[in-house]
Amino acid sequence: MRNRIVGSLVVLGLLAVSGCGSAPVKEEKVEVAPECVFPNSQKAAPDWVCDMPVEGVTVSAVGVAAKSAAGAGFMKQMAMADARVQLAQMVRIRVTNMIKQYAETTGAANQQTVDQVNTSVTKQITEETLVGTRLYRTITGPDGSMYALVGLDEVSAQKITETALKSSMNNDRAAWQQFRAQKGQDELAADIAQQKLAQ
Question: Which H helix or E strand runs over 106?
Fold first, then answer.
């Protein structure tokens, strides 16, 4: 009988201990903040609104147009124009980086000539129409502003770069002749344009 009582107490003790371990745990819900929100808002926005990369678009920019009584079509055109201005600046910076990188790897020309070439190409890109730009996405924000993603695929970005370089070479032959270091102009333009676009 004594063994039976001791056995029962042991079983009850084990049940009590196992019961304590299985008490339900209350889970707290943690609210995760969105990775991208519309300006002056807490509303989640697509990643591209915050300038995050978009697959298949080598160079892109987001333009914004304020809400207008002129309608959605007008707002879309204004947002696209805003994006294209930013795109021209980005392409100009990338080409400038390619020229400087090319000058460093080949040891061609002095710094003054490189700067002259950069200025010449910058002027050419600014004057050029960004042929090949495409509207990829639009969205209207909570305040009524329209956002437009405009970009270039790799082929279009390469063409713009080569065209700007060749046009600049024709317009400012003296600077390019100093810079080219024994290479033909077409060969030099191709070499520079082959430098990696996504720097």
Answer: helix 72-106
